[in-house]
Design goal:
It is a single chain. It is built from 25 helices and 6 strands. By secondary structure, it is mainly alpha-helical. α9 packs across α11, α13 runs parallel beside α15 and α18 runs antiparallel to α19. It is rod-shaped and about 145 Å long.
Length: 554
């Protein structure tokens, strides 16, 4: 675009001085209807032969035959705002112009009243006060042109803005903010927040510099956004025609950028649906965006957004496991996205199964999640969840076979974050194995298992259980009339736990039974040892005294 000198002109006269607005005097063809001229022939050579740029911009999105009324509406709204700008210094005028477009004056209302991602035409601005970055930039360029300012369009794949050149210095204009002229950092961040998506979205195009284009390229962005809106309402024929119109307006070298603009606009619309909870619509839009993005970093980032929306949608599918597990197949064209969704689906299924108490099913699902998720950024999460599910399953297995649960526990590898849980589960399994040995009165086996338990839980009452096993085994021997064997076991129990009164009483009872048998069989030499121990444990017990007298003779 040629550099325009800053001149003091009345606003109504300035329109004819805009470089992009003047029709070609060489045009000698029959003038078609306004709609036909702007949409077809007058765009074929990227020159407006019959129409000023303002008319071409007004016609975009307007009904046939509405141009005259749109032009009158634009002049009525814009003229008092432009006329309020003091034409003293170009940069100041450019700054003031942006402010009055957003805030109005005492006598004229603002034209840019509310941001709306879908408000891409001048008609949206004129009739609803709604705007997005494209329509706000379009209006700013038209208004700046009327003031004689050298304002130019700047396009990013996810954004549009303007630049004003004054004496060789370029002033960046964020047209969606009243304080967007040479915007301070906080205003720039606020502007870009509209295009930097929360909720798990990734920026498709974080480039902040952009590329300068002529005004027709900006008009191409309008048609691109209109095409996106047509696709959103499933009017594919209209979308294709609007895309073709946009391509005619943009230089061929810039058409790849235009595709990225389309992808970014679809993403922005998807984000709005996403934030409103309309995740199915958001998913369809972002799928279309991904289809427009080429390979490389951009494709990976776009698929990241696809994954973010798809994950939210998956969370909304509810408890139908079959539907949940079938959902990822929709994304077979994107293997990494499908793998991530499969892992998430199995992970959700594992959680649902665990909630129903199906620990085996939960572990199986967690295993599938870990397998599918090994190549995803959440692989550590799935490995953690699998280990947790396996630990839960072990506790279920231990109810019927603690030895098998213990074998599996020893072989299980867990992440560091689950080390304490792994130890606690192992301690529980060790305790169950001790209890099993206690119930079977296998005291030597219990001793080994108690040692394993103590390693995992130093506070475990291992000694008391070892003593209890001997005591219980002693009771069983006594009931079988093996009083000597019972006494040996009671004696060992008391050695392990000398303070246990029950163990002492049981030993005394076993000794009395044993000495009684020995005296009855006149085996007094053997009875002497038992009498000595009995007298020491129960010196006043009559049974031992009677046995002593019996062996002493008359």
């Amino acid at each position: 675009m040629a550099t325009r000198a800053f001149i003091r002109l009345a606003p109504l006269l300035a329109a004819a001085a805009c470089a992009s607005a003047r029709p070609s005097p060489a045009a000698q063809r029959t003038i078609p209807s306004p709609a036909q001229a702007v949409r077809i022939e007058d765009l074929a050579d990227r020159r407006l032969d019959w129409h000023v740029f303002e008319d071409a911009a007004l016609q975009a999105g307007a009904a046939d035959g509405a141009l005259e009324g749109e032009r009158a509406a634009l002049n009525k709204a814009l003229e008092p705002l432009v006329a309020s700008i003091p034409l003293v210094e170009a940069a100041g005028a450019a700054r003031d112009l942006l402010q009055v477009l957003h805030e109005g004056t005492r006598s004229a209302p603002p034209m840019l009243r509310r941001y709306d991602a879908s408000a891409t035409t001048l008609g949206d601005v004129l009739h609803r006060g709604r705007f997005n970055c494209v329509s706000a930039t379009l209006l700013y360029l038209i208004a700046a042109c009327r003031l004689g300012l050298d304002a130019r369009a700047v396009l990013l794949p996810s954004h549009a803005r303007a630049v004003v050149v004054v004496r060789g210095r370029r002033h960046v204009v964020e047209t969606t903010a009243a304080r967007g002229f040479d915007a301070p950092p906080e205003v720039g961040r606020e502007v870009m927040r509209r295009f930097r998506a929360p909720g798990g979205f990734l920026d498709l195009y974080p480039d902040a510099a952009g590329q300068e284009f002529d005004d027709l390229a900006l008009l191409g962005a309008v048609y691109t956004n209109l095409s996106v809106a047509a696709r959103e309402r499933d009017d594919l024929a209209a979308a294709e025609e609007l895309d073709a119109r946009a391509d005619r307006l943009v230089d061929p070298s810039a058409r790849p950028l235009l595709r990225r603009v389309r992808a970014s606009t679809l993403q922005e619309l998807a984000l709005r649906r996403f934030e409103d909870g309309r995740t199915q619509e958001a998913l369809e839009l972002v799928e279309r965006a991904v289809a427009l993005v080429p390979d490389g970093d951009e494709a990976r980032e776009a698929q990241g957004n696809l994954l973010a929306v798809a994950q939210r949608r998956m969370d909304e599918l509810g408890g139908d496991e079959m539907t949940l597990l079938a959902f990822p197949s929709r994304f077979s064209a994107f293997p990494s996205t499908r793998a991530a969704l499969e892992a998430r689906a199995w992970n959700l299924a594992a959680s649902q199964r665990a909630g129903r108490g199906d620990t085996a099913g939960a572990a199986a699902a967690a295993r599938e999640a870990e397998r599918a998720g090994r190549s995803t950024e959440n692989r550590e999460v799935y490995a953690h969840n699998l280990a947790a599910a396996e630990l839960n399953r072990l506790q279920e297995v231990a109810r019927t076979d603690p030895d098998e649960a213990w074998r599996r526990w020893q072989a299980l590898k867990v992440p560091a974050a689950l080390a304490d849980t792994h130890r606690r589960v192992g301690a529980n399994l060790a305790a169950m194995r001790v209890q099993k040995a206690l119930d079977a009165l296998r005291c030597d086996e219990l001793d080994a298992r108690a040692q394993e338990w103590t390693v995992l839980a130093p506070e475990a009452p291992a000694v008391g259980l070892r003593a209890a096993c001997r005591n219980n085994a002693g009771v069983a021997r006594s009931m079988a009339d093996d009083h000597k064997g019972a006494a040996d076991l009671f004696r060992e129990a008391l050695r392990l736990k000398p303070s246990a009164r029950t163990f002492r009483e049981n030993l005394v009872a076993a000794l009395k039974n044993e000495v009684s048998e020995l005296v009855r069989d006149r085996r007094c030499d053997e009875a002497a040892r038992v009498l000595a121990e009995g007298a020491r444990l129960a010196p006043d017990d009559a049974v031992f005294e009677q046995a002593r007298r019996a062996c002493a003779g008359p």
